[in-house]
Amino acid sequence: MSSFALPWSEIKSYLESTGPGRGRPARPSECPRCAHSRIWYDGWRQVFCTILASGDPYRFADGLWLQRVACARCWLSWTLLPLFLYPHRSYAPDLVEGASFAYLQDAAGRYASTAARFGCSWTAVWRWIGWLAGLAAPAELTAEAARLDPSAPVAELIPHLVPQDHRKAYSPERAVVLLRALQVLVAVALLARSQPVPPSDPSPLRWFLATRFRWFRLKGLLTRPGWSPALHMEERRSPG
User: Fold this and answer.
1) How far is CA 22 from CA 7, 16, 29, 66, 229, in A?
2) pLDDT-derived band at 5, boundaries 50, 70, 90
3) How many angstroms from the chain centroid is the CA of residue 194?
4) Which of 57, 168, 191, 177 has its CA nearest to residue 129?
5) Count of Cβ atoms closer than 10 Å to residue 52 Cβ
6) Beta carbons within 10 angstroms of residue 65's beta carbon
7) Are 75 and 68 in contact (CB under 8 A)?
8) Cβ-based burial of 217 (10 A; exposed 0-12, middle 13-18, buried ≥19)
9) pLDDT tens per residue, range 95-149
10) Looking at the chain, which terminus has fewer C-beta neighbours within 10 angstroms, N or C?
């Protein structure tokens, strides 16, 4: 199991076509809060994030421009994200997925060497693995994948140990975290593979996070275990 990088050509086309003086993405068809169809452009936001491009880490050192929009009726505003980004992340999910897989699947994997390969700090890799372990229950993901594709040997592909030629965990508790993180990554990849219509996103983790946000308004934030509370649009009324 592994993650595949988004082709650089797709990222390059976004950079060339989107930003002040270059062009804007299409307006959304309706507001997610009130379903009003009139959406206004509402300025730009610039972020400095790191993604995987052709398999290598790439940081938008000059900034990446993101279009903000607002509803003409209820004034809800939000940012339009390209498919290769996820909200509130300095490192895109595909890079998190790639670095975590690289450390957990390689018996010789070490935090420092993995961090050097993916252009981040070793503490970032350490935190990502802890976050992944609490993101979802591997058994639930596996059961859903088996339901969607009963012919696939889903359960047989879930790992039961973390390959290592040295001591990766210095406590029993951390050993459990490492194994669970690897099981979550594999289960997410199997779930993506079992879909009736294969996801267009080459990163199973990014697809999984984006789907949870799109359908259930849940965000997988690195600063807390599991998912953030759902955003209930009907409770956010316009003042007056």
Assistant:
1) 21, 7, 22, 12, 36
2) very low
3) 19
4) 177
5) 29
6) 18
7) no
8) middle
9) 999 999 999 999 999 999 999 999 999 999 999 999 999 999 999 999 999 999 9
10) C
